[in-house]
UniProtKB/TrEMBL annotation, chain A:
InterPro entries: Alpha-ketoacid_DH_E1_comp (IPR050771), DH_E1 (IPR001017), THDP-binding (IPR029061). The keyword Lyase does not apply. The keyword Oxidoreductase applies. Gene3D superfamilies: 3.40.50.970. SUPFAM superfamilies: Thiamin diphosphate-binding fold (THDP-binding). Residues 153-449 form the Dehydrogenase E1 component domain. PANTHER family: 2-OXOISOVALERATE DEHYDROGENASE SUBUNIT ALPHA, MITOCHONDRIAL. This is Dehydrogenase E1 component domain-containing protein. It comes from the Eukaryota. Keywords: Oxidoreductase.
Automatic annotation (TrEMBL), chain B:
Its EC number is 1.2.4.1. The keyword Oxidoreductase applies. This is Pyruvate dehydrogenase E1 component subunit beta. It catalyses: N(6)-[(R)-lipoyl]-L-lysyl-[protein] + pyruvate + H(+) = N(6)-[(R)-S(8)-acetyldihydrolipoyl]-L-lysyl-[protein] + CO2. Keywords: Oxidoreductase, Pyruvate, Thiamine pyrophosphate.
Amino acid sequence: MANWCRISSRTISNHVKTRVNQGLPWGAVGINQTSGLSSALNPGGPVSDGNWRYQNRLPVPRNRATLFCNQRFESTVAEKQRDSFLSSESDDDHQSVDFPGGKVSYISKMNFISESSQTRVPCYRVLDDDGELITDSDFQQVSKEVAVKMYSNMVSLQIMDTIFYEAQRQGRISFYLTSAGEEAINIASAAALTEQDIILPQYREPGVLLWRGFSLQEFADQCLGNKADYGKGRQMPIHYGSRKHNFFTISSPIATQLPQAAGIAYSLKMDNKKACVVSYIGDGGTSEGDFHAGLNFAAVVEAPVIFFCRNNGWAISTNVSEQFRSDGIVVKGRAYGIRSIRVDGNDALAVYSAVSAAREMAINEQRPILIEALTYRVGHHSTSDDSTKYRQLDEIVYWKNARDPVNRFRNWVQNCGWWSEQQETQLRNSVRKQLLEAIQVAEKTEKPPLSEMFSDVYDYPPTNLEEQENHLRETVRRHPDDYPADISV
Amino acid sequence: MLGVVRKKMLGQSLLKIRPAVSVLRSYSSSAKHMTVRDALNSALDEEMSADQKVFLMGEEVGEYQGAYKISKGLLEKYGPERVLDTPITEAGFAGIAVGAAYHGLKPVVEFMTFNFSMQAIDHIINSAAKSNYMSAGQMSVPIVFRGPNGAAAGVGAQHSQCYAAWYASCPGLKVLTPYSSEDARGLLKAAIRDPDPVVFLENELLYGESFSVSDEVLDSSFCLPIGKAKIERVGRDVTITAFSKMVGHALKAAEILEKDGIDAEVINLRSIRPLDRSTINASVRKTNRLITAEEGFPQHGVGAEICASVVEESFAYLDAPVERIAGADVPMPYAANLERLAVPQVEDIVRAAKRACYRSVPLAAAA
């Protein structure tokens, strides 16, 4: 795997072309086609060179027998034929026919477009697994200041996740979910945006808020639901929201943020603002109807929105092979007429570069962009989940250690001479200390008062709510023993 | 103000109201009439004109002039950026509209019928109704969801359900049910101006009905308060509450009852959430008898809530049990005779009022 990654970007595209011409009879099974066959034969364990491949964890495909057929299917011929007649379309105008939606060439041979391409869409990466810059790669350079800020935030996010997770286990907060393994996605995508760009998160992107200046204390206050919480204690933990940081409050139903993002982008477009909307979604969320509606609509109204899909392989216990049968999410972009890219989500520089470029296109060309970031969900889905029940511990440990985005980016920053071991120790200790203090302070802070229970249901409280509140106050006053002593009325 | 309105209207080639306006100038004392359709159209037009952030969105609202022609002329006047024809995805466009509202625009979303709003109900409830509360005031949703609700004629079960009770049970939403043209104008304007999400339930069969309107109603600043019911007919013997089409039925029932010496008070609820409990209770305390009338299904309906409210607040004043008149507890059948049996008729209200006044023997209670 490591060897394959050292190939420069130009060679990658040549490599892909070779694959297409070979017309292999099966579609999206492995990242590396040649070794795909051998590991399909041995679905049980890691391949001998110690590297783990995606397909080892995929359930055996139902049509596995066809993997070994040498027969060239008609459908593989279709791929090439389709390409060839598309290019001749402009030469033979009398060969085209008119329909609502435009002119289209016709063909008298019946060919079905294959359900999958011969090769998977390649993944854009800039740093190899050890954090070394791949030669001749396109990327957006970052300054020392930005790189150090990015790295520090990735570390802070990692530590914040660890400490809050522990706090939940200790019973101090009711729920938490980590972004372990997705620190590069969180921080690098945020770093490529400006403060005016509007974020509609799913729920595994607190790093974006961290980047924008949400303090560790503010995170703790929301998780503890105390009166300093901007959400006034109304939301369960990790449902952060901050108007001043242009980070829309997290909402639990999946994928609802996608059409909303198109709507906000439409609003930016009407106002002619030089900003875009960035909406995040997981691999599982793309199965929702709202994914279709959001992308389709954004394309139709030409809205400046970046749809960022974190494909981390798992939707609670549902592996991607059970979620969809396409080559991930990136191929769906074209179905909506949306420009797309697949990027290595554990490569902070690649994510940064891709998001920067996407932002330019979204704003200057007023169009949506789809980014699929491949990554791995190192943590459990949430504190309500134990993922060892449905996946191998070895797999989790491998990704946590060998493919950690934080380590990888640190290597690059260190190699640039911008970071040292000493700074590392200092930072980690400092963040840990701040977090522990923040939790303690948050725990001691009072919970929101009763007066905040009935506010904000409407812009202005209607009489029936005022009556209910008065009734409740009266009840508390009359029966103080039935209510905790520290309840603030 | 009216002069300005008139000028704008004269500049429009498509509004049906124009002939009535020119009549206005010469015969200022004669009654003016307006259909509910024109009332809604003029309200939309005036609010879009007054506030650039208001825009329309829905299937067929633009080029087709609206599935029921409610948005007639608006695409031509305001352009495609403010009158959006959407792809067929209720969930999609409801979500998009909520997003736009989060960012400060004021969308008016049309559902071809509220039956189709069920495909978008997650966005209406979870994205719109609850957002202001869950975000502690950081995300307000000044959106209006409007469209025909309830039974039409011969359209079957999936086009005939009344959603008043469903939406009105959800905190964070406001639910309005206009009856007359005055209601349509005043309440739609109020809904568009309101910073909270509003579900605006119209009625297809009322669109073509014409009502007299005063000058005040025709004024572009006209607005009705949300949460106030209107006493359409003052009476002394029995209170009949109704909304939307049933108000017309209740008024006809009241005329019939008058001949039998029963003086019915008819309350046009106008607002299901917030429900005007004080007007209803004040009326019941006066008449001591209550009939609730609605088109929708009986279980957990609007009448059930009104009955509970009256029992809680005015129990001692009741001289007879509260009776609910509602649609039959079946998905709406199509055959004309069955449909007629499934929807409350004027006679049902008359008989119920007589029972409440002990002028006739109640039917044995069904299990």
